[in-house]
Design a protein that fits this description.
single chain, mainly alpha, Growth Hormone, Chain: A, 3 domains, three-stranded antiparallel β-sheet, 20 helices, 73% helix
């Protein structure tokens, strides 16, 4: 039997709070920092797109390295990442207005922070599987609270003291992250414990790509063994999970609009007569609303299915950007940001649960990775198009474009989740 091991919820919650505090200064204030250093909106969009593309390519590569036996663990990669961001933030303090150098260094720190976000999730699962207690929903919700608290004061400070303060916060948060991640010390599981746990779980370990699990036969009191396999062939994966595959297109559209608002929020706010202080308030509002939803998602899922929650979130993404098209003051901006309660705050945990409910175990990591990739692709297209639209046609044209794309995403999501089967049995698939 597994021994009762200590809880790492406090440490993991701290890691999330610090991470998202830095996420606020590095990501939410990216446009503020770059515009202040002489970048155009188009150049800001290109930088963010490049960083997103590199992170999308880096994430599966890093995951593959971490999965292999060796010194590169989840903990070690997070530590390396925070040290890289720390060094990059210090470097930005001394480069002045050298646009080429800022482009390179900011791309690196932006990309690295995105890349180690899923590794933090993997760290949680690693410790949970080893018998340690971590409350993921609460910890992730407190991460949003960390973002919110940072947003509440950083906008006013930037308005008074300039963007240099963003780099100071980066340095402080990275030093704090390094300290917290070093607190994670997982004891090695003894070989006899592994055997005992394997027996308790009625599972047998088999060669790579396949495993055997015990499954309760429906309507009978007998146990039968069912072989599972990973569907690594893309054609096979698409056939087995048609609803999920089409839904990925909807995710791209949702996050095209979502990233458009977040990455160029300062331009939207300036168009409404606000500034950095109002940017801080807006980010605070949307982030603090994520905490109760993410912390209570388990209770919500008992009443509403993950599929229906995803559809609700898609509609919320759409309504959120429509409000901004007709906004005349910051009041409308705050109303729009309040819909984060039903949009992003619902989407992130609901998507994770949807993958867990509809996919075989050996496809679930792949499913989560595809969701991250779709989110990133939406961000890349948004970065490239939004910056150009802002320079050429202004805020309203950008928002109308985002609304059209998001509306298309809602239609695709309803078609995928309401019309297509979630899973198609392997036996119906013919590779020839």
């Amino acid at each position: 039997m597994k021994e009762n091991k200590r809880s790492y919820t406090i440490q993991y919650a701290l890691l999330n709070m610090i991470y998202f505090a830095a996420f606020c200064t590095i990501h939410a204030y990216a446009a503020v920092f770059l515009l202040d250093h002489g970048f155009s909106n188009t150049e800001v969009g290109v930088l963010l797109a490049v960083a997103n593309i590199i992170s999308a390519l880096a994430q599966p590569f890093v995951a593959g390295l971490i999965d292999k036996p060796g010194p590169l663990t989840n903990k070690n990669f997070i530590l390396i990442s925070v040290l890289v961001i720390l060094a990059g933030s210090v470097a930005l303090m001394f480069v002045g207005n050298n646009i080429a150098m800022i482009f390179i260094v900011y791309t690196i720190i932006y990309m690295v922070q995105f890349t180690y976000q899923p590794v933090m999730t993997a760290l949680c699962f690693e410790y949970q599987k080893a018998g340690y207690n971590i409350m993921y929903g609460l910890s992730r919700g407190l991460g949003s609270a960390g973002f919110a608290l940072t947003s509440a004061f950083i906008g006013g400070v930037v308005e008074r003291s300039g963007v240099f303060v963003l780099l100071v916060v980066n340095v402080i948060t990275m030093l704090a992250s390094a300290v917290v991640i070093l607190m994670f010390n997982k004891s090695e599981v003894k070989e006899e414990e592994k055997c005992e746990d394997s027996t308790d779980d009625a599972a047998v370990e088999v060669p790579a790509g396949k495993r055997v699990i015990a499954e309760q036969r429906e309507g009978e009191g007998q146990i039968k063994e069912k072989e599972q396999k990973a569907h690594n062939n893309i054609k096979e994966f698409v056939h087995i999970y048609p609803a999920f595959t089409l839904f990925l297109v909807g995710i791209v559209c949702f996050f095209f609009a979502h990233n458009m608002i977040n990455d160029f929020m300062i331009q939207i706010i300036r168009d409404l007569g606000g500034g950095e202080k109002e940017l801080g308030y807006s980010n605070f509002l949307q982030a603090i609303l994520e905490l109760p939803v993410m912390a209570m998602i388990g209770l919500v899922l008992k009443r509403i299915s993950a599929k229906n929650l995803l559809l609700i979130s898609g509609v919320a993404f759409l309504v959120k950007i429509i409000i901004l098209i007709f906004a005349k003051s910051m009041v409308a901006m705050y109303v729009s940001q309040s819909l984060q309660l039903f949009a992003y705050a619902v989407f992130i945990p609901a998507a994770a649960y949807y993958v867990n409910e509809t996919m075989e175990d050996l496809d679930q990591v792949k499913g989560q990775a595809f969701i991250t990739t779709a989110i990133t692709v939406g961000g890349v297209f948004s970065n490239l198009i939004s910056g150009r639209l802002l320079d050429a046609m202004g805020v309203k044209s950008m928002l109308i474009t985002g609304t059209v794309v998001c509306a298309a995403g809602v239609v695709v999501a309803f078609a995928a989740l309401c019309r297509l089967p979630s899973y198609v049995a392997d036996s119906t698939f013919d590779m020839m």
